[in-house]
Amino acid sequence: MSTNLEVPARLPASALPDGCRAWDGEQARRWTRALPPRWVPSRVRARFHLTASVLVLVAGCLLPPLAEIRPYVVALVACHVVWVAVRPEVVPVAVPVLAVVVLMQQPRPAWTVTGPVLAVLALTCVAAVVRLRARAGQRAAALAAAGGVTAPRPDGDRPLERGKFLIAAGLFLAALGGVVAATADVWDLVDDPRLSRTAGWYAVGLGLTTFLSGRLGRRRSAALRDSPIPVLRVLVRYDGTGDTEVFAADDPQARRPLFTVALRELPDDDEDDGDDEHDEELEDLLHGLDSPGPLREAVLYGVPCDGAEILLVGAGEQPDGPPSVAWSTGPVRPLSEGAARRRAAALRRSAARAAQDEERRTAAAAAVADPDSGPVPVRRWGAGWWDRLGAAGLVLLGWCGLLGQDGVWRYVLGALIGLMGVLSLPRKLAWRITADSSGLWLSGLRRVQHVAWDHIRVVECRETVLRVDSRRASFPGWTVHGPRLRWLERRLGRLHPYERTAAEITAMWHDPALRPAGTCGEGQRGRRLWPLSVFLAAAWAAVLVLLLS
């Protein structure tokens, strides 16, 4: 994966179960040889299969040859695209049902429609069966690597949390979709109630899929609570994208990740969530989310295979830190050889981009310390053309949402869009940060907020958000959102305005000699933004009354 030459953080001997074997390279290769072939979709990203599913849904609603297909059939086929990628357990059962439903349609669609649909269903069924059988080979290889060594779970009698949110969210989404589908003829929201009915059945399918994912995850996590559990020694590290990579125990250079899994670390029993030190540690953790973490020794509890749930006891990231216990919050996702190479290339590109961005941020911070610029009484940063372009895009999006609407619904939707606009657009159009010798003055909707230099906790730009926060609980935090096109920034070799603002303020925060020497008068501290909200509300109301009446 990389040429990381750092020595992995060691796991204390007390955390190693008796007889626990190392998952070495030879055993790991046997496990990877049991993975399904490359043509089987096992690591499709969520946005890809959801986008494909929505495209199938739209095609089934709008294409003339498919106009006679029932809404629930279109929704089932669209949900099937999701099942193939994330819930292969459903596919062997769903395919025969879908085939019968498609063939029993009245009036029966032409064979030019049903033929390709049935062929795709058969292909996806074969892929799902191959993937499910591959899981058995992975389990056998992992059990052979463990050599029969087992250990009780290390987390005590903590309650099982896995799957609760997914179960509740799935039931809510399914119920909401059922209501939409059942009342499509009552609510005259669109010209064709078939669209509402199809969308409602699609929501029902996604809701039941989410519910099933929660139930499966909960059941598989509960199985880990039955002692004894197979254990293996491995190496792990956070990958910088929200998941954890697992490597063979004899791969200290992290060349070949075996699989990725999302984890949630269990808190200590004596942890004080209100403690300032804990808050600072959390901020440090959030700052490091974009880059891979250090390589650590760990003990894996469970049998790793595609879709499995596991538990990891890993060495602390600090040299003398205690071991951490983390449950999986998502399924194990194996990496094929090709996926591992693509992942390595993506991480190298990401590291190169991060290095370039850091150079630009350093240059921006150095500009504040330029002796040729001379001392300044105050410094200001504010909204620019990029913020105004983003605000214009939001206005255009809101206007497009009203096109084609009529009746009372137009004004209800228009009022909701207007309310969101008057709360968000003023800051996008006229945000301002003013720095003087006492600290930062930040424009807000109702008042201008102040945070002293010594009370600043963080000034950062994360993706599209510029954020300032204080150590004082009375400060509610300050954020502004804006558009961002990273590919354009890289092509032009420019730093995003939010990144430059954060770098310059951070430089002054850490070095008192760089701070402005003057003090802001009341008129220099910025202005409250509520008058702009009133103006925008009046303008939007005029648009609704004059142009849409």
Describe, in plain words, how this protein is organized in 3D.
The chain has 549 residues and is of the alpha+beta class. Helices cover 48% and strands 13% of the residues. The chain is built from 14 helices and 16 strands. The chain has helices at 25-33, 46-62, 71-86, 91-103, 111-146, 164-182, 193-223, 276-287, 337-368, 385-402, 408-430, 486-492, 497-510, 530-547, and strands at 150-151, 229-238, 244-247, 259-261, 263-265, 296-301, 311-314, 324-328, 333-334, 379-382, 432-436, 439-442, 449-452, 456-462, 465-470, 478-481. Strands 1, 2, 3, 4, 5, 6, 7, 8 and 9 form a nine-stranded antiparallel sheet that branches. Strand 15 (465-470) and strand 16 (478-481) form a beta hairpin. The N and C termini lie far apart (61 Å). 32% of the residues are buried. The model is unreliable at 270-282 and 284-288 (pLDDT under 50).
Kindly summarize this structure in a few lines.
With 549 residues, the chain is of the alpha+beta class.
Keywords:
14 helices; nine-stranded antiparallel beta sheet; four-stranded antiparallel beta sheet; 549 residues; 48% helix
Q: What's the overall average pLDDT, rounded?
A: 83
Strand content: 5-15%
The amount of helix comes to 40-55%
Q: Count of helical segments?
A: 14
Distance between the termini: 61 Å
Topology:
Layout: H1 25-33, H2 46-62, H3 71-86, H4 91-103, H5 111-146, E1 150-151, H6 164-182, H7 193-223, E2 229-238, E3 244-247, E4 259-261, E5 263-265, H8 276-287, E6 296-301, E7 311-314, E8 324-328, E9 333-334, H9 337-368, E10 379-382, H10 385-402, H11 408-430, E11 432-436, E12 439-442, E13 449-452, E14 456-462, E15 465-470, E16 478-481, H12 486-492, H13 497-510, H14 530-547
Antiparallel strand pairs: 1-2, 2-3, 2-6, 3-4, 4-9, 5-8, 6-7, 7-8, 10-11, 11-12, 12-13, 14-15, 15-16
Helix pairs in contact: 1-5, 2-3, 3-4, 3-7, 4-5, 6-7, 9-13, 10-11, 11-14
